[in-house]
Amino acid sequence: MLHLRVICPPARTAAVRDLLLDQPGATHVTVLPGVAVRPPGDVVEADVAREATDDVLAALTALGVDHDGGITLEAIDTTLSDAADAAEEEAPGDGGDAVIWDEVVARTGEESRLSISYQVFLTIACLLAAIGAITDSPVTVVGAMVLGPEFGPLAAVAVGLVLRRGDLVRRGGLALGIGFPAAMLVTAGAALLFDAMGLLSTSTLDALDQVDFIYDVGPFSLIVALLAGAAGMLALSSAKSASLVGVFISVTTVPAAAFASVALVEGRYVEAGRSALQLLVNLAGIVIAAAVVLMLARRSRHRWDRGRRLSAG
After folding, report:
1. Extents of the domains making up the chain
2. What top-level class would CATH report for the domain 2-98?
3. What is the pTM of this model?
4. Is the Cβ–Cβ distance between 156 and 231 less than 8 Å?
5. Per 3-state DSSP, what percentage of the chain is helix, strand, and coil (rounded to 5)?
């Protein structure tokens, strides 16, 4: 379940309270008159089943509470309550599969920012992937794949396309369009340094039996990217975000960007081109699959809402 806290003007408190009392998936409803200071107003709290949360948020925003008050959601790890168990039973659907659209937008928006930490993580991941490729170490390459933060911007682009949110598409595109070239430029500089120190030469790249998947583009490159994008969006939009780590390990984005830089420095233009193609295939596949998953979830939701209205009428 999720804990909901609403700050609202006193004139809307009754409407918010009644809304929560009429929602079978909400329980533990509490009204605290006049306790909010900034913004001023009353506080209404409740515990809401995840599968009912999207309806509750839509109704609250329709009341305008998000403009002259505030709405806060936080996860509840443990609830010992017969009332909470009953609310989860009465709420339609399964909590693990429920999509809270406002939560998805908030998470993707926050994780797609072109921040200093994002750029540092992406650059370090590319450097690790380059070292893993040079040393033919798949373990190091996998570590770089886990470290890479690129799924946030990719998810933001997919969410923006489905919800027609141009701000999310621009933000995610900016993080990818600036982040990857900057990280690749630093990686190329590191490759030049390794070359000058005698740690890297073109012959080093002749036998990369363990990491040749980085630049080996084929049908499975797109298939893996599509599966990873679908799994990643399912994990991001449901209550199973721990599965995202598996998605990071599946996709060859950071390693491809890193190897393209190294191969270009060493004059191996074929491998550099294939690595760049691998990067583009993975980026496109992830966005396409993630967008399709969101569209299917949205269509399923609309179909369920239509059926509920027909049965109610």
Report:
1. 2-98, 103-300
2. alpha beta
3. 0.82
4. no
5. 70, 10, 20
